[in-house]
Amino acid sequence: MVEVPYDSALATQRADETIESPMRRALRRLRRRKGAVAGLIVILIFVVLAVFAPLIAPFDPAAQSWSAVRKAPSALYWFGTDDVGRDVLSRVIFGTRASLLAGVISVGIALSIGVPLGLTAGYLGGWVDAILSRITDAMLAVPFLILAIALAAFLGPSLGNAMIAIGVTTTPIFIRLTRGQVMAVKVEDYVEAARAIGNPRWRIALFHILPNILPALLVQATLSIAAAIIAEAALSFLGLGQQPPAPSWGSMLNSAQRFLTTGPWMAVWPGLAIFLTVLSFNLLGDGLRDALDPKEK
Amino acid sequence: MLTFLAKRILQLIPTLFFVSVLIFSLQQLLPGDPALIMAGEDRDPEVIEQIRKQYRLDQPIPVQYVYWVKGVLSGDLGESMRFKQPVLDLVLQKLPVTMQLASMALVISLLIGISAGIISAVKKDTVWDYAANVFALWGLSTPNFWLGIMMIFLFSVQLGWLPPSGYVPLTEDWRQSLATTIMPAFVLGNAIAAVLMRHTRSAMLQALNSDYVRTARAKGLLERSVVLKHAMRNALTPVITLGALEFGTLLSGAVLTEQIFTIPGFGKLIIDAVFNRDYAVVQGVVLITATTYISLNLLADVLYVMVNPRLRA
Question: Which terminus of chain B, N or C, has fewer Cβ atoms within 10 Å?
Answer without folding.
Answer: C
